[in-house]
Amino acid sequence: MIVRILGEGQFKVDDAVAAELNQLDTDLETAVERGDEAAFATALTRLLAQVHAQGTPLPPDILEPSELILPHEDSSMDEVRKLLTDEGLIPG
Amino acid sequence: MGVMKRVSLVFKAKANRALDKMEDPRETLDYSYQRQLELLTKVRRGVADVATSRKRVELQMNQLQQQANKLQDQARKALSMGRDDLAREALTRKASAQSQLDELQTQYAQLQAEEEKLTVASQRLQAKVDAFRTRKETIKATYTAAEAQTRINEAFSGISEEMGDVGMAIQRAEDKTAQMQARAGAIDELMASGALDDVGGRRDDIQSELDMMSANSDVERELARLRGELTAGAPKQLEGSSGAPNGDAAAAQSSQASQGYQGPPQQSEGPYAPQYSPPQQGQQPQQSQQQAQPAGLPVADLPGLADEPQDGDGS
Questions:
Q1: Exposed end of chain A (fewer CB within 10 Å): N or C?
Q2: Which of A69, A75, A83 is best to mutate for the B interface (most B CBs within 10 A)?
């Protein structure tokens, strides 16, 4: 499975790790829904650490879309909310 | 559905919408490639912009550091002249310059990190663009309408995600640079206002007061020197007691010292001691100049030596 961390590039992550990532992702989502900035930061940090630990960087000349895309390390909750809307941060 | 999945779907939706706009799939390839090249140019310009901004901050940090050092020196000088009030003012300004400096340092580090990230992003994009170009040429060469659409879609979505990512990275870097420039502008204004005391610009109040005090103490030193000269100039005193001039000098020094000025004693003690010892040794040859010339010190030099205290002391 290919995971992108925005601003860092793509990582290849074993499918077995996916379940773990999904759990952390649920925490992240809950935090965003509740507007809990502290929980958001914790979940994001753990998620990124997991991808860094378990993933291997994908060579840059491979043209593959990612299955999962993670916000960059110092993203604020507000930025992530905008990422989730179609009109948000991602340039057309 | 989690955040990660949703973000990736948003990226894909954008790519698909762009694809749908094109009628001929091959047109998509060329159009997309053009946009990739534009983005590459943009990201490289972004790196250059951040670097320019970083250099400006570097310059400003140097200026602030010089100012802080200068104020520190002024404080030390003021303190040695017994002017605690001036020293305190200098240190207060130094603290202000230092806090600006600390803030700049933090932002400088951020800017540097941003520059590195953007450089890496531009290299990554370059690799993807190269891969895309290769794929594009292959697709065009073996073009059959049936499979083209799928392969084009693959290539396109593979790179459009990267482009979206890089686009955001450029935006972030631009935001940081703008913040930094606003900050740098504010510090420039602060420096111009004199609140931090302008380095090398107009002379500030602390410096002019220190200069005035220093000029006063120069007068005192000159006075002491002249006094020393007068006493040293009397030949009887020289012959009678070689210790006398030193004693006078010491007296002059102690009068300076009582004004809180510590500088000259070490300076003037040096010249005096060696300057007065030659006449002692030279007394004998001077008396028996004709008989024993080779044994003595070069007699002709003696007046010169006696003159030297005046020149040496003036320094």
A1: C
A2: A69
Tell me the nearest-neighbour CA distance from A70 into chain B, angstroms.
5
Quote the pLDDT of residue B278.
Answer: 47
Does the domain formed by B3-157 have CATH 1.10.287? yes
Query: Residue ranges of the domains in chain B?
Result: 3-157, 163-188
Reduced 3-state DSSP string for chain B: CCHHHHHHHHHHHHHHHHHHCCCCHHHHHHHHHHHHHHHHHHHHHHHHHHHHHHHHHHHHHHHHHHHHHHHHHHHHHHHHCCCHHHHHHHHHHHHHHHHHHHHHHHHHHHHHHHHHHHHHHHHHHHHHHHHHHHHHHHHHHCCCHHHHHHHHHHHHHHHHHHHHHHHHHHHHHHHHHHHHHHHHHHHHHHHHHCCCCCCCCCCCHHHHHHHHHHHHHHHHHHHHHHHHHHHHHCHHHHHHCCHHHHHHHHHHHHHHHCCCCCCHHHHHHHHHHHHHHHHHHHHHHHHCCCCCCCCCCCCCHHHHHHHHHHHHHHC
B58 to chain A nearest CA, in Å?
Answer: 24
- pLDDT digits 0-9 by tens, A24-75: 888 888 998 898 999 999 999 999 999 999 999 999 888 888 988 999 888 8
Do A92 and B163 lie within an 8 Å CB cutoff?
Answer: no
pTM above 0.90, yes or no: no
Contact across the interface for A22 and B2, Cβ inside 8 Å: yes
